[in-house]
Specification:
The complex is a heterodimer of chains A (472) and B (457).
Chain A lengths: L2 H9 L11 E3 L24 H9 L5 E6 L2 H5 L19 E2 L4 H6 L2 H15 L3 E6 L1 H6 L3 H12 L3 E4 L8 H13 L14 E5 L7 H12 L2 E6 L5 H5 L6 E4 L6 H11 L3 E3 L6 H17 L7 H27 L3 E6 L2 H13 L3 E7 L4 H10 L5 E4 L3 H11 L3 E4 L4 H6 L3 E4 L10 H16 L8 H13 L1
Parallel strand pairs in A: 2-3, 2-4, 4-5, 6-7, 6-8, 8-9, 10-11, 10-13, 11-12, 13-14
Antiparallel strand pairs in A: 1-12
Chain B lengths: L16 E2 L6 H9 L5 E6 L2 H15 L6 E2 L4 H6 L2 H14 L4 E6 L1 H6 L3 H10 L8 E5 L8 H13 L12 E4 L5 H13 L4 E3 L25 H6 L5 E5 L1 H15 L3 E4 L5 H15 L5 H21 L3 E5 L2 H13 L3 E6 L5 H10 L8 E3 L4 H10 L4 E4 L4 H7 L3 E3 L17 H23 L10
Parallel strand pairs in B: 2-3, 2-4, 4-5, 6-7, 6-8, 8-9, 10-11, 10-13, 11-12, 13-14
Classes of the chains: A alpha/beta (472), B alpha/beta (457).
Amino acid sequence: MTETATATREARPAIFEERKDQIHRIGSEPFSMACNRDSLAGAVSQRACVFCGSRVVLYPIADALHLVHGPIGCAAYTWDIRGALSSGPELHRLSFSTDLQELDVIFGGEKKLAKALDELIARHSPKAAFVYSTCIVGLIGDDLGAVCKAASLRHGIPVIPVQSEGFKGNKREGYQAACKAMRQLVGTGDISDISPLSVNIMGDFNLAGETWIIKRYLERMGIQVVAGITGDGRVDDLRRAHGAGLNMVQCSGSTQDLAKMMRDDFGIPFVRVSWIGIEDVAESLYAVADHFELKHPELASGLVERTAELVRDELSNLMPKLAEYRRDLEGKRAAVYVGGSFKAFSLVKAFRHLGMEVVIVGSQTGTEEDYRELAAICAPGTIVVDDANPLELSAFIKEKDVDIFVGGVKERPIAFKLGVGFCDHNHERKIALEGFEGMLNFAKEIHASVMSPIWRFVPRREFGLNKKDAEV
Amino acid sequence: MLLRHTPKEVTPRSALVINPAKTCQPIGAMYAALGIHGCLPHSHGSQGCCAYHRSALTKHYKEPVSAATSSFTEGASVFGGQANLLQAIENIFTVYEPEVIAVHTTCLSETIGDDIKQIRDKADKQGLIPKGKHVIYCNTPSYVGSHVTGFSNMVKGMTELSTSTGKKNGKVNVIPGWVEPSDMEEVKRLAALMNVPITLFPDTSGVLNGPLSGEYHMFPEGGVTIKELIEAGDAIGTLALGEWCSADAARNLDTKCKVPCKVLDIPFGLSATDRFIDALRTIAGTSVPEEITRERGQLVDMISDTHQYYYKKKVAIYGDPDQVISMVEFLVSIDMCPVHVVTGTSGAKFEKRIKELTAHLPYEVNVKAWGDMFLLHQWIKNEPVDLLIGNTYGKYIARDEDIPFLRWGFPILDRVGHQYFPTVGYKGGLRLLEKILGLLLDRKDRDDPETVFELTL
């Protein structure tokens, strides 16, 4: 290919005509975005499937058996796919599959499934078992419910079908299936010793110890944590989760359905929270305190004060350290492309504490409302995008000349090829990024990548930097 | 102990895989397709499959991996995926402008019975495939075979492009099997040194080990071109490296275009490389150049310098059939003892081959095709080993049992280097030895009491 031809191809923004209304430039037009739309056939979408959604939500329940009923791939790709730290059992980190073969597809896989459950439950004595349905199971019509019910009767533990056939949608539907599965456990345990001042931590998955950070804050405030749903999760905690006084729900999609079911069935209110950044963490803690002060004034004396003290303590420790990072990062530009849009909100605010502006923001599964709110808090000129593909992302990164990209595993090498820093705020994070100490870790990660000397050697930037160096 | 749930006692299992030593077909097809220049792999199924495969390949190669998907929904699963695939082909050629789309199926599209050839032909008739561009395909139902089968099927799909003009072009087709981009580069280097003009396919060098350029290219420089694939039908012969990965494609070329083929082991280690070089020599009708003789001599030299450290060391190895067969041969040739050998892929031929390679040893090797890591771990608990060789998923066993661990195979999720440093050929043999010796001696240095702690090798 000639150079001109290459240049033309590079310069042309790679956007499907049909996708134009999934991209919005703030200030250049009245807000309008179409979302929660199925990806176009043929798109190099960054999205995943229903099974993926269910699997990641339930995965951290460490003392449950997670059996994938399907061909080997679905189990292989989700084997220990991300951090799901457990303070005890590690059964969840093994990969169990019925490894369906051609004959199973023809004659059905029910017998194989029943047998697999018998073998596994006998050997590992789990507290409960989750059985995940995959595309093929949905097609061949195995009666997952019946097999699970029978196994449950045989073994005396809950054996719960997760209706997560991949083709039934994207991750969102998977979250719903996971919530339905968890709902079967909730309400079956003894709650007589649970304090009224108690919560469930929902929608955090303890990827790198975040659930523990949040739990420590709440305990310092005098709040009992009943269950991590599902960070550092346990079957018995889920059984008792209906004893909590309040559900704190993070992550817009993943566990909100369960919170709604628990509100309707047990009258447990929920608040939406975010454990990312500074304001959002503080507001989340205050929301708990305020809730209980209103609900149980007789029990909650001093709660708000204790919360204020905690926040003060943490901030006085955090802010001077942040300032050091901010000195270097002031004025740098960030792009954010994440799974759920709740995280995007918090990240926009978190970056401001580092003196940085988010100039591209998007998610795989945001709603129109999410994007409208995002557009409201971002600066004019910011690109808001739903369900992006690599060519779009790379074109936007270059157009906005960003210094760091926050995304997931598939975006990382794209950022690096472009000579742009990267922070995994998704599955593959290695350090805790939530709570006040998470904010400090976040600043450290951003600093480490944005300020790396390697970017001086990137061809695209070399000229400019050399020039700058020469001026010094 | 992460694997504290693994009991020592081995009991028969019939319905269940625990900690798989394989994955499903489509990812192999996707990897193979990336070895064609300007190719966009396309997954005909749900979005999740494509996302998982791209993620897995990205984690292994640390490179962007693009692939499109038919994005099946419930409707497509009931009414068939033809509309999705036709729309996908149109969209892809319009927006991403690849030279070729390589379609592979999934369990979903296979079960609903989509006929990819018929859909492809229909796309052609409707003018959705621009002139000079191509759509190739293969069938990769996830409930048959493994990722190795998928790789083989896509390579065979490539040979469907090949045509015979009746006039031989003097080139040799080399099908390298599922090896790293660095290995493919090394195969090309060796062939060039032998003065044999080859067409290597697939060829992921330059695709999945590219430099940081400051630009993102959906279609990087490397890869076999469509023109070369078409002309593969006029080659004088095909060397297929690996029975499982490459033989089907080579035989298809033989049947279709009368290109005779020879199936060899993938050239890992001394003897398998000898056979590969000899095959090139025979085809070229020349003698082996001094430079290659020298490289071979260096490998033999390093083995002799260090052989006492390998003597009777027990090894557990798992991975894909072609790779493990060559590696077991190499281990035996340096006096190591492979005692446990597992592949997740099925094949009685694999077990037979391993038994032949180890027949002269004074013990019976544990070998299992269609095995898994759970079984391997149980075997190791019953008979401990000095070295574990395989992909990253072995790290749990290595940690729990405190075994030196050589990462080799697919996927490697937690180390780098495999993209850049080959393990095929004599040079690759040197690297393997360096790694194995380093692991064994690091362990010795760690465990030796102070009194016998040694400075010198």
